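We now fix the convention by which a protein and its fold are recorded. The integers have meaning only within a learned vocabulary of local backbone shapes. A complete example follows; check for yourself that the lines match position by position.
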Amino acid sequence: MRNYASSAIVLDFVNYTKFGAVMLAIPGLEHNFHGYWIYPDNSLAIAKAVVVELTSALPQYKSVFESNYKMFEKRINSIKAEFQSISKRYVLNNTGVVIAVPGAAYFAFSLGFNVCATIVKGPNRFINITELSEIEKNIRDGLIKYVVLPVSLTEAKPGEISNQLSRDTGVTILYVKLFLIGNFETYSDFMSYNVGYIESQVAHGGGDISASSVNFFLYYFIIGLLTLISIAEGLIIFKYRRIVEEAV
């Protein structure tokens, strides 16, 4: 149980639903709460909920909060467009996939994939032999084309099962970064990296988790674009900070 100061404002999923956040269903889990913040539309709902609460608490800074939200919204809409472009370019919409863990589902949904099964069903709960045989049959029948696996779980049980599936059936593994760790300073950096990473793998018929597998041109283009946006954002924040300081 977490303890919060009596004056603290605590936001949770119920607050985000007011602005359109959703938990999407996957096989065996009607409301998949694992990684729901990864879904771009959900990230916008979360940001909007935060803006509303901040504006309510600090109405004098309303224009600052709204300006920052609009910049964030612009970035996320660009990322959504990239996901849609990849899906269209490589005809991924409704393509059957297996996800290694429930949290990977929201990347799959962003690409228009049809999630047919999940390897991990819950804490220490994995698919059984019968279910695994059904997945193998669907792969061989062409109903499932990819397994979506977080890089961080490659050496864990979900990764072992995913790699065994790939060896036995030839199914392609698509790797994703599931956690905001490493060199990611913002959510948009994290998602932009995954856009480039996923496209590189789809374009080359599969994933290699080494850095060389990333489409460097796309990756550095995105990083450069984000740098320019960050500079513009910094100038805007500086402007508003001056306004706020002069008003105090």
The two ends are 39 Å apart (CA to CA).
